[in-house]
Give the backbone structure.
Amino acid sequence: MQQKTITVKNMVLSALLIALAIFIPMISFRITLPYFTMTLASHVPVLLSMFLNPVCAVLVAVGSFVGFLFSATIEVALRALTHVIFAFVGAYMLKKNANIFLVLLVTMLLHAVCETLVMGCFGFQMLGMDQAVSFGGQLAVAGIIAGLTMVHHLIDSAITFVIYKAIKPVADFGGQIHINKHITL
């Protein structure tokens, strides 16, 4: 069995993306709603790292968690920790040359489900939603969290694709974005 190694290039790119993943939550524009926060571009380093390999993607996602641990509430940091899941799955799919739109769809849904579960397990109490709030009310808030997470994921994905396209010739992030059999970016 052949042993896989991480190249120096991937280590350097991962380190740079980890630094960005820690730094962005500290300086980026944050939208705060009653049950949701969105930090613009916070997923970009994680999404870019998916083009390297699954190990790098997981490490950058952990870096994102650390950045939110320093700059946000614990429930926001725990939501950021779930990025490990979608980052690993997305990086694995890209490694297998999956269609980029399928990768986007799968990672967006995983992202939304994981963050909503974190809020369901920990965040509702932290948000002041106790047993007095009906199950229907909590379900509505869960739907809002999932929907806004998907919107945030799409916005950051668009930013990521612009950056990826711009830096790919210089950074050599690996394979191509596969849209279908006839078109590659």
Remarks:
- The mean pLDDT is 87.
